[in-house]
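In response to a reviewer's request, we include the raw inputs and outputs for one of the modeled complexes. The two entities were modeled together in a single run.
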Amino acid sequence: MGYFRYWGAMIRCAALGSKAYYLWLATLVAVTGVGVWAYAQQLEQGLAVTHLSDQVSWGAYIANFTFLVGIAAAAVLLVVPSYVYHRSDLKRVVLIGELMAVSAIVMCLAFVTVDIGRPDRVLHLIPGIGRLNFPSSILAWDVVVLGGYLVLNLHIPGYVLYARYRGQEPTRRYYLPLVFLSIGWAISIHTVTAFLYSGLGGRPFWNTAILAPRFLVSAFASGPALLILCFYAIERSRTLEVGESVFRYLARVASFALPLNYFLLGCEVFKEFYTDSAHVASARYLFFGLHGHSVVAPYIWAGLAMGATAMVIFLTPRLRARRGLLVAASVLAVVGVWIEKGMGLVVPGFVPSPAGDIVEYAPSLLEGLICLGIWALGALLFTVMAKVAIAILTGRLRAA
Amino acid sequence: MNALPAVAVALLLVACGDASSPVATGPSPSRGQVSLGSRSGKVAAFPCSQCHAQVDPAVVAGGQTKKHAVALAHGPLACTTCHEPGDMDRLRLAAGGTTSFDTVHALCGQCHVEKARAWAFGAHGKSIGGWSGPRQRFVCTDCHSPHAPALPMVVAKPAPVPPRRRPQRRAPMTRPTEPDRDRRGFLKLLGLGTAAAAASTTTACSTDWDRFFQKHYKEMTPVDKALVFARLEAEGKARAGRPVKIGDPPPVEGAAFAFAISLSLCNGNRACVYACVEENNQGRDPAIQYIKVVELDRGTLDPEKGDLYYEGEVPKPGKVYLPMQCNQCDDPPCVKVCPVEATWKERDGIVVIDYDWCIGCRYCMAACPYEARRFNFTEPKIPAREINPHQGYLSNRPRPRGVVEKCHFCLHRTRLGNNPACMEACTTGARKFGDLNDPTSEVAQILKEKRVFVLREELATHPRVFYYFD
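The model returned the following C-alpha cells for the whole complex.
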C-alpha cells in the first residue's frame, strides 16, 4: 500500500506546479503532439515521407540516436565522483544526471522506433519471442546494452528516491554494486554504438578504430554541457541549490573533453586528407562537397565554429566564470557536437555510395517535426522526473 | 552426365578444322550437355547455290557484290576466303576441306583462335536453356554478321531515376487492392492516424492476427507454410486479378551458384535491369532496380569513378560497363549485422530475406559494400497486369512496405534448373550462370580458364559474382 501511496504522491507532485511550470509542460506536450501527428503521417505513408533513400538509408533519426546515446553515457561523469570519490556536492545532484540518462535512453529508443520500417515487428527483437541475432549483430548488442542501461538507471534513482521518501538511508548493497556496474555499462553503450558504424568494412568513412574513443570523448563534452544547461534551469526554478562547485566541475570536464574531441577529429582529418586515397571522398564531401554536391559542408563548418567558440569560453577561466557565457558555451558545445557526431557522421558515410552515386540528404519537414517531438518528449520526461526527484531530495515530499 | 566430351569435341573442331560433326549429337541432350542450333535452316532463304553455281571471279577480286546488299567489312577477306568456290553451300577451311553453316565456328576459329577457345568452354557467346538442363550455345553468326562482324550500337534502356528527382516521392500512396481503405479513412477522421496506419496492412482481423504472429521462415512447419502460402496466394490473387502461385523450392543440394560476367561483352544496354524488374515484381513507383550498370572509363574499375545515369547509344567508345547486383557473398556482411536474422545464406549460396520477418532497420543496407539492397519506402506499386504470378516465398513475391529486398539469383527459377531472368534477357551473352561445384558448368570453366576478379576483394566478402575480360 505504501508503495502505491508513494506513486500517488509523486504523480501529485508532478501535476502541481507554478504557472511557468505549466506553461513549460504545455509547450512540451504541444510539440510532442506535433511529433506524434507527424509520426502518424509516417506510419500512414511509410518512410517515403522522409528524405531518406536507398543510397542514404540512415539520416536524422539515427544521427539523433547516436548523439543521445552519448548523453546517456555522460551520466557516468557524475556517478564516478559521487559514488567512487564521494564528492558530496556532486552526490546531491547525481540522481538528476541519472534521470537525464533515463530520458536520453527513452529518446534513443524512440528514435530507433521511428527509424524502422516495420515498428509492428519490434517483437522480433525480443529473445524467445523473436530471433535476436546476438552476438553477431552489433545492433542486437545495442538493444541489450541500452535496455540494460535503462533498467540500471531506473533502478538506482528509483530505489534511492523511495528510501529517501520513507525517510530512510538507502541500503548500500541494494544499489551500490549496480552503480559500479552502471559505470562500465555507460562506457559500453557508447562503445557499442560506435562499433555499429566502425564495424562496417564497406563504409570506409566509419571504418576507423578511433570512432569509439571519439564518441566517448565527444559525449564527455556534450554531456556536461547539457547538464550545465539542466542545472542552470533547475537553479533558476529555485527548487534546488545546485552549487557553484558543480558548475565548475562540469565546465572543467568539458574544457578537457572538447579539445580532446577536436584533437581526435583532427587525427581523422589528417589520416583522410594526407593519405588522399580513394577513401577520402566521404571526408571531402563532408567538408568541401563533392562534384558540386555540398549540402552538408556549411552545416559541418557551422558546427565546428560553434565547437571552437565553446572551447575558447570553456578554456578561458575568466570567461567561463561568468554564468551567462558558460550557458552560451554549453549551448554551443551541445549543438556543435550534435552536428559533428550526428548528421556530420552519418550522412557522409553514405556519400559516395558503393556504386559511385552521390545522393544528398537533408531531412524533410515531417522528419524534422518527428525529431522535435522526440526531443520534446525527452524534455517532458526529464522535467517531470527531475521535479519529483528534487522534491524528494529536498525533503518536501516525504511519507507522512 | 557431363559436357566434357562435348567441349572436347568443340575444341578439337577448332584446333583441327574438322567439320565432321556438330558439338553435341543425339536427339535430346541431357543435363550438362551443350548443343548448337542449326544455321543451315536460317540461311536457306537465300542459298547461294540458287544463283551461283560458282563464284563470279570479278566479285572475288573486288570483295564487294553489286547484286545484293552484302557489304564486306571483315578485314581483307574476300568471298572465297570463306565460301567454297565449287560448292556455294559449304564453307571453306584454310587447311583444306569444307564445313557446313551449322559449324561456322570451325571456320571463324581459324583466325579468332582465342575467341573460339573461349566460346568452346562458354566464356564467349550466349547460351540459352537452363543452367542445369540441356543448353544451347549460339554460334558466331547468331550474333555477328559474317560479312560485317562488328556489332552495331544500341540504345540503352532508360537510366535509373535518382532519388532526388523521384516523381511523386511524397505523395500519399493509395492502394487500389486494399479493401479496408474506408475503415482507414474513418479512423483517420477520428484522429487515430496511428491506429489507422497500424491497421493499414490488414484485410481482416483473423489474417491480422495470423500475420502478426507469423513465424520466421526457418521456424515454420510444413503446415505453417501451407497456411501462410495460401493466405499470400489469396492476397496475391486479389492484387493481380489472376491466380498466383507461391513456390518454395529448396536449395539445390551440393550446388554453389555463381555468376560470371564478361565485361568485354557487356554493352551497357540495361536489358538485364528491366527483365529483373519484371520477373521479380519490383515496385515501379518508386522504381526499385536490383541491377545497377556503371559506365566506366577504360583504365579504371572503381565504381566511384563511374556514371550510373548514362543514356543514349551504347557501348560508347572508350567505356566499360560494369553491372552490379547482389554478390551473394560467402561471408555476407549484411547477414552478420541483421539484428533479427531476417536474412541468411542458404546452402546453395543464395542470400535470402524473409520479407515477413524483416523489421526494416536498414542496417544491412549500410553494411553492404555493393549497394545491392533496396528498401520499400512506401507500398510498392505494380500494375496488376504486370505482376508475375510465378512467385517464390523467399524471392519474387511482391514485398510489403517497410522491408528490404535484393537480388536472389532468381531462386524460384534457378532452383528448378532455369537461368536467371537477367541472363535470359542479356542480348550480348555477357552473363553466365551456373554451379561452381559442377566442373562442366560454364562458370566453373570460366573460373578455371579466365583470369577473373571480384569487386572489393579487399573486404574478403568472397563474392559469388565474378567478372572477367574476354
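As requested, we also summarize the result in words. The mean pLDDT of chain B is 83. Chain B is about 25% helix and 15% strand.
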